[in-house]
Structure formats: structure tokens, C-alpha cells
Design a protein that fits this description.
Chain lengths: 236, 419
């Protein structure tokens, strides 16, 4: 689905070969994006008079470190993601717009997400017009993005084997406290199974930035992630 | 691959369960004895008791009543932790159903399947888990033996030795010389000696800034080398000298009476000296007759000794393949062993072994780095799957977060070990 959308709406400027496959493209239709952005504008402003409101203003968002807007009271989730190295490049913004909670657990942004890749691309093309730094070169970061695998409904529909999940969870609890305590490593209990799966899949796909979690999630199969989600859903 | 491994495990576990079943029925609850209450043994005992819900009789043999973790002991030397914050009691394990016996295991009869204790007791087992950690190889640093450990502490087992070493560093004369004799591979906690050098430098920089540090290292290269070298240059310029094997560090001798270190014939007077000798599996493994060379070969699928399938061995004492000797590794291996033992004794489900390890090191205030990897069991060994390491030149924010994460890990692993 997404590949088709890309082919139709995005001009493919460059396709690098080799290990990290990167493509840079026109992001989307900024004028159409301006219309879609109206649903965001209750909370987020852009342009010369933009101020922080319910959400931070979005001038210069491309290439900006998460939680870097001085004076805005960010959620703990965004602050933690920033500490893990989250920088708002195109791929992360796209993932965030698709499903904010998938990228950042505990974000306050109360938005269901834009399911259509084209809608996200158009909004991001619009926002790109308010980001001066780095200069507006479509081939360069932050507009370049690696090819990604889409998280399919089939993956989310897997019913996890909670008993297997309990065994697998023993790898998590070497660092994360099973009773939900927090001393510098986040609590992972009392999450919904879906939030858990989405978060782990985002690490597995290296959308979320933390290197340990990318490594731990990277070798788990979809079934194993579902098993963990099922188990963590059973503990108090 | 995965399917094959599962099949293999399924067959192995099934066979073991069939063999032990009659005995189990004849004698009531199956008995597991765990020797050693550190990251491997405490975790294994706790998981066995917790997950078997009382179906397995679990006894832990551990001589000390208060366990001082070796991990984070360098942070005590650097002044980032109080010694008491590294101490843990076994009350949580007792509460989760483990029979905790404070005694030394001094003998193992593999035919009778019993462990004898220094206090005279004899513990029968259906499965034995050995997690004794390390002992030192006699004569590996000429002039040093365990009788010299008060003059030249090893401080490579947590507790009193760590306190002694710190006191000796604090008592050094102004502008004095601290020396460390680093161990040859393989040894407990690969970045440990170098984190210790960092923490000693941190301590001296604040209290005795003209003091010098001499690192005598028989190895060509070491864990996180680029990260430590960068950090030493940044935080402690001119303070630390490392002598490698090309300058005679493999030919070193100490004299704990005169407080000298002789490197390739050249005598150095030192004011404090940390000797970390070559290492081997805890002695009980030798007594059990399951070592080959200095270590115990084990199967990665179950952590079973290659020489006795009734004995599982964890952590530093093992020769298992690619995992470093660390508390994190021992904790990870303990869960695989606990699952395998439970499967064999109660017929519970057995899953493919998965292992992981991450080692954090502190170089200076808020300057933390880490290295880690994931592992799986093959028939030959525990094999590395994937890994990462902190990079040189990382921004200070990320280094601070890495340090904070290590504090979180300490809280996590100790609650995983002790409940």
C-alpha cells in the first residue's frame, strides 16, 4: 500500500544502494497539507507569530531535537525520548503523525494519528516550509528516509502465547523492574497489549532510537513480541 | 534453525523429564541445590522457587549473610555510591520460598548427588546449580598470593576488599603513585579494570591531584578502549600511564612487603597497588571435577555441564562461548538454566535459550558509556547475535542519560536477583 502511494505521489530523486537504503523525495503536496493541518492548528501554531499553546509551536521542527523548545512543558514521555536521542527527522515525524504513542509512550499529544501516508506526507510538506535549518534540500537529511516495512494489521492481530511471554519477560526484568519501579529505566508494566506491541515493533524497526532496545527487540519475532505483550498484560 | 533448536530442546527436556519422573514420585518434591548467591545463583534460586510455585524444593548455599555486588563497586571507589547501597540480604529469597543456608559448599559427590557443607551438613540434589564466581590462579602475578591481599588488594570480589583499596588510595601521600596490575583474558567484567582506573583517577583528582596512576596491562587491547582513552584524555590528562605487553607488562612481579612492582626488570616504588590476578572458576567446580583448564564447559541450551548433565553452571565460572563474564550475563544465564531445570523436573514448557548482556561503565561524573549484545545457543556454544557500543565524541546529554540508565539497571537487576 505504502509503496504504491510513494510511487504515485512522491518524486523519487535519488536512490542510494548499499547497506542503509535511503531515498530522498519531495515530501508531498504542501498546499493540500495546509488544509489537513487545520485539525492540528487548535494546539500547534506555525509562522512568524507562532507561539506555544496546548502544544509547542512547530517552526523549525525538522532536524530539531525532541523537547528542545525552551519554555514549553513537555510530557515525561517526550523528554525521555529526547534523552534517548530522538530528533525530528522526516521518518520520526511521519511515524509520530501515524500513531503518536507508537513513537513516544506517554506523550500528551491526544491525536488519533493520520492513517493515510499521503495525508502525513502532505502535512509534513507543509511544515517543511517553516523549517529553515537545515536548508531546504530534498535530497539531504532530514527529508531522506530509509525504506521501512509497514506494521500490518496481521501483526497487530497475533494472539500472544503468555506462557512463552513470561519466559521472554525474564530478559526484560534484568533491567526493567517487574513491580513497575522506576530508577532510571522506564516501567513497562500496565501497558495495553497493543501499546506494548507497537512500541516493541517501533524499536525492532529502529524507528525508536534507543540502541539497547533496538537490539533487544530486533531479534524478537512478531510472535515473540505478541507473547511478551500478552504476558505483560496479565501482571498487575 | 529455530525449529531445529526447539525440536532439539523438546527432545532433551522430554528425555530428562522421563528419567527423573520415577525418582520424583518416589521421594516427593524434586530438590535443587544452588551453590553461590550472586547474580547467577540468587537469580536461579529465585526464579525456580517463584516459577515452580512450590513444586521444587530449592536450597541456596551462600556463606555471606550480606552480599556486596562486585558490579558498581568501582562507583563506591569513585565516590558515587555508598558501600551500604551495594549490600543485599537474602531475606527476599527466603520469603519467596528458597531455603537459604549460610555455609560453604566444600565437596560434591556426583554419584550420590550430594553437596557437603563446611558445617557438616549434606544436601542431596536432583539437579545442582553451581554459580561460585571466580577464584584466582596461584602464581599468576609472581610475589602475590591471597596472603598478600591486604597489602595489595585485588578488590575483585565485592565488600571488604573494595573498602580496603579505597582507604589505601585515600591514604596515599601527596603526588604518590597508584598502580594496577590488570588481569589477562578471560576474566570477570572486561571493562571493570578500566572503569576502576577512571574511578581512581576521579577520586585522586579531587583529593590528590598531583598523584599518578600506572596501569600495567598484559593485554594488547581491552574492552571499550577507545572510549576509556578518550575519557582519560578529557577528564584526567597526564594522570594515567598505561604500560602494555610491548613494554614488558606481561613480565611483572610484585613485592607486597616493600610495596614495589617490577616491570621487565625495572623496579617501581608504589604507594597503593591493586593486583587483579588471572582467574579461574570458583574452586568448588574443580572439586566437582567438571572443569577443563580453568573453566567449566557448558551447553548453551541449558547451561548444563558438558561432563555431568545433573549439574548446571552459571556465570563467571563457565566457558560458554561469546558472552563476557559479567553479572548481567550470569543473571541472563540463570533464567535459561532455571527454565531448563524446571522443565526437566516438573515437565513445564521449555523454550529456546535467549541471552543478553549490557555493561555500563562510568568514566567521570555524568560520563557513562555502555556496550552490549544479544546471544543465542548453538550446539557448539553461546553465540553472539547482535551488539552495540557507545561511540567516541557522543554529546554530554547522552552520556549523562547512559549513566542514569545504569543506575536504573542496578535497581532492576538487584530486584531481579533478590526479590
Amino acid at each position: 500500500m505504502r509503496a504504491v502511494a510513494i510511487a504515485v505521489f512522491f518524486w523519487i530523486a535519488l536512490s542510494a544502494s548499499g547497506g542503509a537504503e535511503q531515498e530522498a523525495r519531495e515530501i508531498g503536496d504542501a498546499r493540500r497539507g495546509e488544509t489537513i493541518f487545520r485539525q492540528c492548528a487548535d494546539c500547534h501554531q506555525v509562522g512568524s507569530d507562532a507561539k506555544d499553546r496546548v502544544g509547542p509551536h512547530l517552526n523549525g521542527i525538522f532536524g530539531r531535537k525532541a523537547a528542545a523548545n525552551d519554555g514549553f512543558g513537555y510530557s515525561d514521555g517526550i523528554v525521555r525520548a529526547a534523552n534517548d536521542g530522538l530528533v525530528w527527522d522526516l521518518r520520526r515525524l511521519d511515524a509520530y503523525l501515524e500513531n503518536p504513542k507508537a513513537l513516544v509512550s506517554g506523550t500528551r499529544m491526544n491525536f488519533r494519528g493520520l492513517a493515510e501516508p499521503r495525508d502525513r506526507a502532505d502535512v509534513l510538506a507543509y511544515l517543511r516550509g517553516f523549517s529553515d535549518n537545515p536548508s531546504d534540500i530534498p535530497e539531504a537529511q532530514p527529508t531522506a528516509r530509509p525504506r521501512e516495512v509497514e506494521l500490518s494489521p496481521e501483526i497487530l492481530a497475533i494472539v500472544g502465547d503468555a506462557e512463552y511471554g513470561e519466559y521472554l519477560s525474564s530478559e526484560c526484568t534484568g533491567c526493567h523492574q517487574r513491580d513497575g519501579g522506576y530508577d532510571g529505566i522506564p516501567s513497562i508494566t500496565q501497558w495495553s497489549a497493543e501499546d506494548f506491541m507497537i512500541a516493541m515493533q517501533a524499536y525492532k524497526r529502529k524507528i525508536r532510537p534507543h540502541p539497547v532496545m533496538q537490539m533487544m527487540a530486533g531479534r524478537l519475532s512478531d510472535e515473540e513480541i505478541a507473547a511478551l505483550a500478552a504476558y505483560f498484560g496479565t501482571i498487575e | 534453525m529455530t525449529l531445529n533448536r526447539r525440536n532439539f530442546l523438546g527432545v532433551a527436556a522430554g528425555t530428562a523429564a522421563a528419567l527423573s519422573a520415577p525418582m520424583v514420585m518416589g521421594q516427593g518434591r524434586p530438590r535443587v541445590v544452588v551453590v553461590g548467591g550472586g547474580a547467577g545463583g540468587a537469580t536461579a534460586a529465585r526464579y525456580l522457587a517463584k516459577d515452580s510455585d512450590g513444586a521444587i524444593d530449592v536450597t541456596l548455599v551462600e556463606p555471606t549473610r550480606s552480599y556486596y555486588t562486585c558490579f558498581f563497586s568501582n562507583l563506591y571507589i569513585g565516590g558515587f555510591r555508598e558501600i551500604d547501597s551495594l549490600a543485599h540480604s537474602y531475606g527476599g529469597l527466603a520469603a519467596s520460598g528458597v531455603n537459604v543456608v549460610h555455609d560453604w559448599a566444600v565437596g560434591i559427590d556426583r554419584d550420590a548427588r550430594t553437596v557437603s557443607l563446611a558445617g557438616g551438613g549434606v544436601l542431596p540434589y536432583d539437579r545442582l546449580i553451581l554459580a561460585p564466581g571466580i577464584d584466582f590462579v596461584d602464581g599468576s602475578v609472581p610475589g602475590w598470593d591471597v596472603s598478600a591481599q591486604n597489602a595489595m588488594p585485588h578488590a575483585y570480589k565485592g565488600g571488604s576488599q573494595t573498602e580496603l583499596l579505597k582507604a589505601q588510595i585515600m591514604a596515599m601521600p601527596e603526588g604518590g603513585l597508584f598502580a594496577m596490575v590488570a588481569p589477562p583474558n578471560p576474566y570477570r567484567c572486561p571493562p571493570g579494570p578500566y572503569e576502576r582506573i577512571s574511578m581512581v583517577a576521579h577520586l585522586l583528582k579531587a583529593n590528590n591531584p598531583t598523584a599518578k596512576i600506572l596501569l600495567i596491562d598484559p593485554k594488547d587491547k581491552y574492552s571499550k578502549q577507545a572510549l576509556f582513552e578518550e575519557g582519560w584524555q578529557n577528564h584526567y590528562p597526564g594522570m594515567i600511564d598505561r604500560i602494555g605487553p610491548d613494554f614488558g607488562a606481561a613480565n611483572v612481579e610484585v613485592n607486597p612487603v616493600d610495596m614495589t612492582v617490577t616491570i621487565d626488570g625495572t623496579v617501581e616504588k608504589v604507594d597503593a597497588c591493586n593486583v587483579i590476578p588471572a582467574q579461574k572458576a570458583g574452586r568448588i567446580c574443580e572439586l566437582a571435577g567438571i572443569t577443563e583448564g580453568n573453566w567449566v564447559p557448558v551447553s548453551g541450551h541449558t547451561m548444563q555441564s558438558r561432563l555431568d548433565e545433573n549439574i548446571h553452571v552459571l556465570g563467571d565460572a563457565t566457558n560458554q562461548g561469546d558472552m563476557p563474564k559479567s553479572g548481567f550475563s550470569a543473571n541472563s544465564q540463570a533464567k535459561v538454566a532455571a527454565m531448563a531445570v524446571r522443565g526437566a523436573l516438573t515437565g513445564s514448557r521449555v523454550f529456546p535459550a535467549k541471552f543478553s548482556n549490557t555493561c555500563w561503565s562510568l568514566i567521570a561524573t555524568d560520563d557513562g558509556v555502555k556496550v552490549g549484545a544479544t546471544y543465542e545457543a548453538t550446539d557448539e556454544k553461546i553465540a553472539k547475535v547482535d551488539g552495540f557500543i557507545s561511540q567516541t565524541g557522543e554529546n554530554p546529554d547522552l552520556r549523562r542519560v547512559t549513566y542514569e540508565e545504569s543506575i536504573g539497571w542496578y535497581a532492576g537487576i538487584t530486584s531481579d536477583m533478590f526479590g
